[in-house]
Amino acid sequence: MTGRVDGPDKVTGRARYAYEHPVDGAAYVWAVPSVIAKGLIRSIDASAALALPGVLAVITPDNAPRLPGTGDPELALFQSRAVAYRGQFVAAVVADTLETAREAAGQVRIEYQQAAHDVTLTQSHPGLYKPDYVNPRYETDTAVGDFDSAFAVAPVRVDATYRTPAEHNNPMEPHASIAAWQGDTLTLYDATQGPSRAAGQIAAVFGLDPSAVRVIAEHVGGGFGAKGMPRANVVLAAMAARVIGRPVKCAVTRPQMFAVTGHRAPSIQRVRLGVDPDGRLVALCHDVFDQTSTLKEFTEQSAVATRHMYAAPHRRTTHRVVRLDVPTPSWMRAPGECPGMFALESAMDELASACGIDPVDLRILNEPAVHPETGQPFSSRNLVSCLREGAARFGWAGRDPAPGVRRHGPGSRWLTGTGVAASTYPARAMASQARVSASHFGRYQVSIAAVDIGTGARTALLAVAAEALGVPETAIDLRIGDSALPPAMIAGGSMGTASWSWAVVKACRSLREQVRARDGAVPPGGLTAQAAIAADIDALPDHARYSFGAQFAEVRVDADTGEVRVPRLLGVFAAGRIVSPDQARSQFIGGMIMGLSMALHEESAMDPEFGDYPNHDLAGYHIAAHADVQDIEAVWIDEDEPELGPIGAKGIGEVGIVGTAAAIANAVYHATGSRVRDLPIRLDKLLS
Ligand code: MOS
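A: This is the predicted complex of the input protein with dioxothiomolybdenum(VI) ion.
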């Protein structure tokens, strides 16, 4: 949702997105994707492309500038003749016009030495290994007690395997960059979730001092994690601009995004739960099988939420990953928690059925007093309140516990059911700085390299700054979206608002103290305060900090066709202080809609023959549309989170998607008696 501050700019088209910045003399670059999934480039013939009028350069591994350092192999563009996945950028054409660049890219002739590829994840893949850590730096495996022995003797057990498909972040604005060099300094207009991080990483790629790269991101049309780190498009624009000595524009097409801008890897997850006769968990195990590319290790942390959700004396979580000849997976809204909680919360529903306990009651019964693995106290934990509040609002009481077959009305072919699932996401903040100045004339300037990716960041930060300064919002000029401003955390990991507002409030308070020390007078030269929060974060007490939520879904399933509709979705969240209620509601329901989309539609289908995702556009990759969303509501309970800075915001970008797919799958089971363990819940799976 757009904030009230910049909403008018966005709806009138005044707001500029990366590709729209006017840059004099810009040329265009178009990438050539690999058509094999594994092998080597044997030869490249660029003569036909170069012969086209308007073509300025063809960049290939043979002539590309050497990049001194990257750290991220996805950014080491054209540095090798090896092909790691189909769709990987292997060459590029720079031309005077976009059309010429595209036409010429199609005329670059590449001969490959193709090798047999492997693009299929299985639970028994011989290449599965234990990574040193899982994203971003979680322990790979954990264990408490003796799971195997406890599970073997538990009177009621669930042992089920769940699958989630590859899913692609599809922000409205595809990745795009404009690069312009002035000598050895580089200016980038970029669609990024983090100008500071992007500037640092691109500087490293080109071997520049971090101060030599400036990244400007005035407005960004969504990211969902895909724009959390720079992608090939940024390097491509900068490299092409370097080669031709002119500014260059680079836009990634929707189909190209399916290869080069990250996605959620498919997962296979085995969950085992054992309870004693009164429904208390005694044994709990979550084993994750995941894939990454040969280029780069990224292991989705799908079992981490299981580590803190429910009490059980005997427990284990594991992650295994295999390197396949596939595009590199990455962050997609709630990496880890999102697919992981589909598995755990589906399994909890199966357990509720197996032991005849209401699924809300089962979750409340297994609420831990402290973190069940580390023993840390929770800074605040309100899952039970969310479940109770949601059950009351949703009208959960009196629900028929038996699954299927409940007709919507006499003679109706719609079967109806309801389901519940819990939600959670870590509450964290990351190092950020802010600068605040007061002028002699009563105006204030607040500067931080935050970025608005469509969430209404300007609206939230203005409200925070106005409150902290004790002045009206109209007295403040807020500057964000530029790496030249004080460095800040990315808009990601549900940490944007929490981190930025912490730094902004700290700077505002420090400025107010300066003003107070001068008896309220601001000198003609003005006053400035800058604040950093890294030390405050390091000093946080050793507590477990999470947001929680409860998702309730009502579904209708067509008994003849298997069509699933979701007439009602309710999410109740406990996420610390809610800074900006309109934007927060939109974030929560946005996450829930994405969860609905995950439950019913989203699936990047891998073609094993070519090793690629053929449904790589919005015709083939289905995303929930307005007509899929009916009565959807998100509410929150007031929660005091005293530890996470002066604002006490826990972050809300991701908790909304977590658990939604499980709530819907559980409701489908309730309606039909069919348990779908592999997403999405397609018609054919219900009819088979
Ligand atoms: Mo989020 S997937 O950390 O942008």
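The first helix runs from residue 7 to 12. The domain at 142-166+264-427+545-685 is CATH 3.30.365.10 (Aldehyde Oxidoreductase; domain 4).
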